[in-house]
Design goal:
The chain has 370 residues and is of the alpha/beta class. Helix content is 41%, strand content 19%.
């Protein structure tokens, strides 16, 4: 059972982050914020995929003005992403941002301490949190000189210094992140940070990349921290045309660790010479069909009698293939035999008829479905 690190709790709109709240899944729009229609459409797609908090780049006054219109057309919590210029932060807060993400260091370098104070005062007045976001590429020069290069220690010290700066301004509604693009430094930075502050932590491997390597890096980095109880919210940063991939990946990490459940949990054997059915094809068909299922149902797809019945006993609904037919199991008990070409339809029919008990929506550690 995973014991989560004890943290303070902040509210991002209506979503609680930290404390005993579920680990929240976030994403960020890839659209030009000034393109209001495109941004609203992407936000809606993210929300439909289960995203709980969306971040939007606000680099200019024009983007901040557009942010206000986007806020009027959406209900999901929105985070304004700010760098260097504090003025868009003030505008975004005025227009309804639920949180702002800043790196106090680059704002100080651009506009001085007064700029940070104005942003903090505005956030305090509207009662919204600030995420102190430190990336490997944004660590201040004095710390780079001290440590020689962007080390986990440098990132942690930068984040802690910025937290103390906000605290000195009377502000403690804070979320913190220390992202790297490589997994070992990212993990070390968050572990160091978790020992020094009790604010909620936003996890992510920044610039993880595209395709399979990005999924693996994100799962290892985010997953290893979550497995040790570290992390209160996350974003899987993918170079992908479809930003909903980030949301799906985030929930898959949480499901794999049995931290949160959203939709089906699929088990499928990898296939071998014993298989009497085209397992790769069947597994992909089932996975695709399950994308449209919201129930927290455990589904197994197996290819032979060696592991099939045993795995079926662990699943709510299972199918074991063999020689042109599929045997359906419900809660480990044989249900019916159907022709191979009818397996997907029969499986979906069983899922549609399946009603989870209150316990079925929970993992062993007590984490509940979304």
């Amino acid at each position: 059972m995973i014991q989560r690190r004890s943290t303070r709790q902040v509210m991002v709109g209506n979503v609680a982050v930290g404390g005993d709240a579920p680990v929240a899944v976030q994403s960020m729009c890839s659209t030009d914020t000034r393109d209001i229609d495109a941004t609203v459409a992407q936000i809606q797609a993210l929300e439909d995929a289960g995203c709980e908090i969306v971040r939007i780049a606000v680099p200019t006054k024009e983007a901040a003005d557009a942010f206000g219109e986007i806020r009027l057309q959406t209900t999901i919590p929105l985070v304004a992403d700010i760098h260097f210029d504090y003025r868009p932060a003030l505008l975004a807060i005025e227009k309804g941002a639920d949180k702002i993400r800043i790196n106090p260091g680059n704002i100080i370098n651009a506009d001085g301490m007064r700029a940070v104070r104005l942003a903090v005062d505005a956030a305090k007045e509207r009662d919204i949190p600030i995420r102190v976001g430190v990336n490997a590429g944004s660590i201040e020069q004095k710390l780079l000189d001290k440590y020689g290069y962007p080390t986990p220690e440098a990132a942690c010290e930068s984040a802690v210094n910025h937290v103390h700066l906000l605290e000195d301004l009377g502000f403690d509604d804070i979320v913190v992140s220390v992202k790297f693009s490589d997994v070992p430094r990212m993990v070390d930075a968050y572990r160091l940070l978790s020992e020094r502050i009790d604010y909620p932590l936003h996890l992510g491997v920044t610039e993880a990349g595209a395709a399979m390597p990005a999924y693996i890096k994100s799962a290892l980095g985010i997953g290893s921290l979550l497995a040790n109880g570290i992390g209160d919210t996350l974003r899987v940063s993918l170079t992908t045309a479809d930003k909903t991939d980030e949301v799906v990946a985030g929930f898959e990490i949480l499901k794999a660790l049995e931290i949160r459940s959203k939709g089906p949990l699929l088990t499928a054997c990898p296939s071998c010479g014993r298989a009497q059915v085209d397992l790769p094809a069947l597994g992909l068909q089932v996975a695709e069909a399950l994308k449209h299922v919201d129930k927290p149902v455990k589904v197994a797809v197996m290819g032979c009698a060696v592991n099939g019945p045993g795995e079926a006993a662990e699943a709510d609904i299972a199918v074991v293939g063999g020689r042109g037919v599929g045997m359906l199991y419900i809660k480990g008990k044989p249900s019916r035999r159907v022709p191979e070409h009818e397996v997907i339809r029969a499986l979906l029919d069983e899922i549609a008829a399946w009603e989870p008990s209150p316990e079925a929506a929970q993992f062993p550690n007590g984490a509940t479905s979304r």
